[in-house]
Amino acid sequence: MFDSPADVTERLAAVDYLSDDAISTSVFLAAALGKPLLVEGPAGVGKTQLAKAVAAATGSDLIRLQCYEGLDEARALYEWNYKKQLLRIQATSADDDIFTEEFLLERPLLKAIRSDRPTVLLIDETDKADVEVEGLLLELLSDFQVTIPELGTVVARRRPYVVLTSNATRELSEALKRRCLYLHIEYPTPERERDIVLSQVPGIRGDLAEQLARTVATLRALELKKAPSVAETVDWANTLLALGREELDEATVAGTLGVVLKHAADHTRAVKELGLPDA
Amino acid sequence: MPEPGSLVDRHVGFVHALREAGVPVSVAEGLDAANALRVVELADRESLRAAYAATLVKKPGYRPGFDVLFDLWFPATTTGLRAPREEPLDPETATVEELRAYLAQLLTDGGDAEMRAFAQAMVSRFGRQQASGPGRQNWFSYSVLRALSPETLMARILREVLAGQERGGLAEKTVRQRVTSGIRRFEEEVATDVRRRIAEDSGVERIARSAVRPPLDQIDFLRVTKADLARLRREVHPLARRLAARLTIKHRKGRRGRLDFRRTVRASLQSGGVPLTTHFKPPRPHKPELVILCDTSDSVSSFAHFTLLLTYALREQFTKVRAFGFVDTVDEITKFFQPGADVVEAMTRLAKEADMVRFGRTNYRHSLETFAERYGDAIGPRTSLLILGDARSNYQPPALDLLKSLAGKARHAYWLNPEPRQQWDTGDSVASDYATIVPMYECRNVAQLTAFIETLA
Q1: Which of A76, B43, B98, B353 is the one with CA 20 to 30 A from A229?
Q2: Spatial CA neighbour of A188 closest among A50, A10, A14
Q3: Binary contact (B340, A276; C-beta < 8 A)
Q4: Nearest CA to A184 among B115, B64, B216, B446?
Q5: For residues B287-319, b (16+ Cβ closer than 10 Å) or e, as one string?
Q6: Which among B54, B177, B178 is the nearest to A25, CB-wise?
């Protein structure tokens, strides 16, 4: 898929994803070694975005499995189409085989395995799913195959590029981690964040982007309940642009703080710590 | 151990050192790393680091230790100091004043490579100390940091950068934050280079053992430093969420809710009146109630700090939490931990306002008595009772009956003790006596807290 980490950086940049050394190397290795990539990090640093960017950069289909509490096999892997089966039994004789491809409902995981096209399979927020789902993923992630009792084993026609994301609200099992390459994405350095703002918000001035990135870094250093994400920095840049502000002075920050801080307690704290005027 | 020579030896030695430092690396992961080495550019050191990290380090807590060991096993080549932009600076002859000026410039806008080169040059100039014995020398970071004293540069940088702007405001905060993180980076680079030089003199294995601090989840609560606390806070929050989830799940199992007759019949229309899929009314979510009793005395002060953190985090997860702190007598501290309140502020207010300390020595009997008398009705059949403390009662009678009746009223009761199990029952500890009534768990670090939460399932 990729020639080298440098190639990854370049092609991700072409689809507006600014990568760094660690990200590029991990993405490259996952492709070169054919292993799933587990991406962890705080909310809003671009984990899901990375999977989308890889799909866009390589021209692959993106199949997404959004995990949540109570997600089960029927939603993740496959399900039998009971209604169709029942109607078939009623319409024909009972000894008809009703466990065939025809009655199989594909869910994201099975779909990714059976796809002929290059595919990026995104298993989003893996930590939200119950432990049983991890068990389900193990066979898929190590051998790229799925066993359906009535049909037998379905082996991947073409190995999907698998990205798992997690906010680490729950420790994933050792077995799952062992099968994956691991990438921890932290908040970007102010320099990288400035570049992200510049690439995402056309028309913003360089020094304003720089000021924004530095201010956000300062905010993150405070102990907030919810630190501003990269997406919120970009929102902030857009806000300033829409308001026609050329500079990020204290009054402007105080007036627009709601764009990046989403808790009243954080708001008070920031105003106090940064010595902002009361908005 | 043979002198690491070939790449394979080095790889094996490195993996081995990681395991010794407490980073669990399985055989399969070691093989993955070796495979990764075949596809990355070995000459590119950061790429190599990223490849090793991706295959071997699966938890952020292990990362600092990994970085220290990586720098030892795959040391950076010394390139010497590149001339700064304007006038050339010779690190061996320049005056300390010139060096400080250069460092000040690096702190505000220096790249990683420049910072590293400067740190290395400074270690070679200031870091060498003659040691006892002929031909022996030692390397130290403190002599470098003393010579340059980067901490004292702050005032001057602020003066230069802010030039005329108002002080104390946002601009100053931003610059301070940038310089502080620059200083941290410089200190780390110096420490890394010092370790590298010691390793060159006396072998990698010798230094490796002492250089790596235990990973965050194995740091003892009773010996937590201030810097660790901030990081612990981040670890504890998700754990509280899990604890809350665990206590909820216990009740959810085995109860699917009542049959939703209407939905079931409606769904059966699609299959010709045969109710193929049964629908259930969603089970009414159980709202667990939690009562926390925590020892906030000095003997467990860092643990108390942690228990308060846990309390705070739990407060946000449970609908109904009542927290009580005790030393000599008990006071309800729930109100200090309003959801959404600021944790740091809550701690300070707590220390000032709460009525817990009379003589500053833990008295479990008196505390339990006061608790039963004043807040006994806080515990009901739906309550989980969580006691956090070291069970050291200063030779006062333990009041076991009282605890028994309290625990009897609660749905579950657990006791987390921050002392190592060997020290239970020594001196004035009555841990085992209490443990016969309430299951007691040793809980000295995040790893053990995690394990405790797992056992609840």
Answers
A1: A76
A2: A50
A3: no
A4: B64
A5: ebbbbbbbbbbebbebbbbbbbbbbbbbbbbbe
A6: B54
Out of A149-163, A188-202, B204-218, B410-424, least confident range: B204-218
- Is some CB atom of chain A closer than 8 A to the CB atom of B344? yes
> How far is the alpha carbon of A31 from chain B, nearest alpha carbon, in Å?
11
Chain A interface includes B165 (CB < 8 A): no
Tokens encoding B204: 């990698």
Mean pLDDT of A263-276: 83
Instruction: Tell me the pLDDT of chain A averaged across its residues.
Output: 88
Find, among A223, A216, A224, A221, the residue nearest to A248 by Cα.
A216
Q: Which amino acid is at B30?
A: G
Q: What mean pLDDT do residues A113-132 have?
A: 90
Which candidate, A133, A35, A23, A128, places its Cα nearest to that of A75?
A: A133
Amino acid at B163: A
d(CA B416, CA B400): 17
Question: Which residues of chain B, if any, have pLDDT below 50?
Answer: 1-4, 80, 83-87
Q: In the prediction, which pLDDT does B453 show? A: 79
ipTM: 0.89
Residue from the list A221, A249, A265 with its beta carbon closest to the beta carbon of B177 = A221
Three-class secondary structure of residue A167 per DSSP: coil
* pLDDT for residue A198: 92
Both tokens assigned to A34: 């054919």
Q: Which of B31, B38, B58, B165 to mutate to test the interface with A (most CBs of A within 10 A)?
A: B58
| Residues in CB range of B205: below 8 A, 6 or more apart | B1, B13, B17
Q: Which residue from B50, B233, B277 is facing A21, i.e. has the nearest CB?
A: B50
Phi-psi region of A262 (alpha: psi -120 to 50; beta: other; left: phi over 0): alpha
Is A273 close to B173, i.e. CB distance below 8 A?
A: yes
Q: Please tell me whether residue A184 adopts helix, strand or coil conformation.
A: strand
Residue of A7, A19, A29 to mutate for B, most B C-beta atoms under 10 A: A29
In whole angstroms, how far apart are CA B433 and each of A181, A257, B364, B372, B398?
47, 54, 13, 19, 8
Q: Which chain B residues are closer than 8 Å to A219 by Cβ? A: none
* Type of residue numbered B393: S
Residue A7 contacts B, CB cutoff 8 Å: no
Contact list in A for residue B229 (CB cut-off 8 A) is: none
B residues 121-140 closer than 8 Å to A (CB): none
Asked if B87 has any chain A CB less than 8 Å from its own CB, the reply is no
Rounded to whole angstroms, how far apart are CA atoms A157 and A116?
Answer: 6
Smallest Cβ distance to B276: which of A82, A250, A268? A82
- The contacts of residue A254 (CB under 8 Å, 6+ apart) are A271, A276, A277, A278, A279
Angle between helices B301-317 and B226-252 (to 10 degrees): 40
Interchain contact B50–A (C-beta under 8 A): yes
Query: Highest-confidence range of A89-103, A173-187, A240-254, B244-258, by mean pLDDT?
Result: A173-187
Cα gap A172→A71, rounded to integer Å: 16
* Nearest-CA distance B50 → chain A (Å): 5
